[in-house]
From TrEMBL:
One of its GO terms (biological process) is base-excision repair. CDD domains: AAG (cd00540). Its EC number is 3.2.2.-. It comes from Cnuibacter physcomitrellae. It comes from the Bacteria. The lineage of its organism: Bacteria, Bacillati, Actinomycetota, Actinomycetes, Micrococcales. Keywords: DNA damage, DNA repair, Hydrolase. GO terms for molecular function: alkylbase DNA N-glycosylase activity; DNA binding. This is Putative 3-methyladenine DNA glycosylase. Belongs to the DNA glycosylase MPG family.
Length: 209
DNA sequence: CCAGAGATTTTCT
DNA sequence: GAAAATCTCTGGA
């Protein structure tokens, strides 16, 4: 493994750009090339992280073995998936935000809807989870044990951008960290959106992208 | 293209 | 009881 998943999520996140994650479910295989991620750190280090206030039943997987999947349910209807990083006992994870479907496109479209364009199949964290067929039942699963497989890029991606994270509000409103990583010139990268509570601020001052 | 609002449930204050 | 690591649809430019 060229990348040490036990490292901090800030280090692992850009290394996952270009990696291919596969899920071989009974319905078939879907693989996608990761084009956009976000890093989240542990207790007391990152106000935007689920682990910020310590271990809870929901986030306990984040404190577990690196290389496992942390799935969570949010906004009453969506599931999102992370790859757990950092040594056991310390919580940090990489949120998978978007990817390009490179295998099993028919199955992915079956799950997402017949009218969905190829580029939108896994464009956004909740969409990615649906396209890949991941559910809350996969919380704690190993990303490199069947039915999952993670193929890391032989050469680390270059030419990615670092921006503020999406949907995260920190002290004073803004996310203090630029921990969103996205490959440049990738149509599958999700459109950048600021946190809902910052929309009026954005209208006043303007925000990048 | 952009902005607004609704859906709906887990989690923690 | 409010907010949340979101998405989809609607209506307008």
């Amino acid at each position: 493994m060229p990348v040490d998943l036990a490292a901090s999520a800030v280090v692992v996140a850009p290394a996952l750009l270009g990696a291919v994650l596969s899920h071989d479910s009974p319905a078939g295989l879907v693989s996608l090339r990761i084009t956009e991620v976000e890093a989240y750190l542990g207790t007391g280090e990152d106000p935007g992280s689920h682990a910020h206030r310590g271990r809870t039943p929901r986030n306990s997987v984040m404190f577990g073995r690196p290389g496992t999947l942390y799935t969570y349910f949010t906004y009453g209807m969506h599931t999102c998936a992370n790859v757990v990083c950092s040594p056991e006992g310390s919580a940090s994870a990489v949120l998978l935000r978007a990817g390009e479907v490179v295998a099993g496109e028919d199955l992915a479209r079956n799950r997402r809807g017949e009218k969905v364009s190829a580029r939108d199949l896994a464009r956004g964290p909740a969409r990615l989870v649906v396209a890949l067929g991941i559910s809350m039942a996969d919380n704690g699963a190993d990303v490199d044990r069947p039915p999952f497989h993670l193929e890391l890029p032989s050469v680390p991606a270059s030419g990615y951008e670092e921006t503020l994270r999406t949907g995260v509000s920190g002290p004073g409103g803004a996310d203090p960290f630029r921990w969103r990583f996205a490959l440049r010139d990738e149509p599958t990268v999700s459109p950048y959106k600021v946190h809902p509570s910052l929309r009026s601020v954005r209208a006043d001052r303007g925000v990048q992208r």
